[in-house]
TrEMBL record:
Gene3D superfamilies xrefs: Amino acid/polyamine transporter I
GO cellular component: membrane
Membrane spanning stretches: 24-41, 72-96, 126-146, 152-170
Domain of life per record: Eukaryota
Signal peptide: none
GO MF entries: L-amino acid transmembrane transporter activity
Pfam families given in the database record: AA_permease_2
Subcellular location: Membrane
Keywords: Membrane, Transmembrane, Transmembrane helix
Membrane association type: Multi-pass membrane protein
Gene name per UniProt: LOC106542900
Record protein name field: Cystine/glutamate transporter-like
Length: 203
């Protein structure tokens, strides 16, 4: 599910978007569909070239696929993986620093983190805070525990946020909202989040 987790990050930068009531749903729909189609085609490619036994014993399926299908391009795979990681990291820094910025502006964090760069108009203190936090988390334990903790906490709070939205809609049904989401969609999303949360607990 980590590959699909970027769909909600556009809402973090709502203030910086043009026509957010149109562009946020459009970006979510287009990006999720693109990722689904891309991953489906990728898996079809894997199983076209590799057998099920090859996939099970492979430590890196993409590398095994490239070794059989594109022998001359095998050295490019690490570069593509690095670019993918860089894009994910860039998106995370861009969006989560805005979360700290807004929390500070609302009085939930120190005022320092609500300041922005004079020329670039970016929340520089919030961005700089993320680096020592990430460094500390990496140094504390191994990468697998960090990934499990990250996935566990992310999907837990997404589930809680979805539940909070349902409660808010029930308590204040007359409040005008630019984004209309049906209750069935919210309940389905909540159930998926709780299921992922339970999987993380089992592991």
């Amino acid at each position: 599910m980590f590959a699909y987790s970027g769909w909600f990050q556009t809402s973090f930068v709502r203030e910086e978007l043009v026509k957010p009531e149109r562009n946020i749903p459009l970006a979510v729909i287009v990006s999720v569909i693109t990722v689904i189609v891309g991953y489906m085609l990728t898996n079809v490619s894997y199983y076209t070239v590799l057998t099920a036994a090859d996939v099970l014993v492979s430590q890196a399926v993409a590398v095994s696929f490239a070794r059989k299908a594109f022998q001359s391009l095998i050295s490019v795979i690490p570069i593509l993986v690095s670019l993918s990681c860089f894009g994910t990291m860039n998106g995370g820094i861009f969006t989560f620093s805005r979360t700290l910025f807004v929390a500070s502006r609302e009085g939930q964090w120190p005022t320092l983190f609500s300041m922005i760069h004079i020329q670039r108009h970016t929340p520089m203190p919030a961005v700089l805070l993320m680096f020592p936090l990430v460094t500390a988390m990496i140094c504390v334990g191994d990468i697998y525990h960090l990934l499990n903790f990250f996935s566990f906490s992310r999907w837990l709070f997404i589930g809680l946020a979805t539940l909070g939205l349902i409660v808010h809609r029930c308590r204040y049904p007359d409040i005008l909202s630019p984004f209309k989401v049906s209750y069935d969609s919210l309940k389905s999303l909540r159930n998926i989040m709780l299921y992922l949360f339970s999987l993380a607990l089992e592991r």
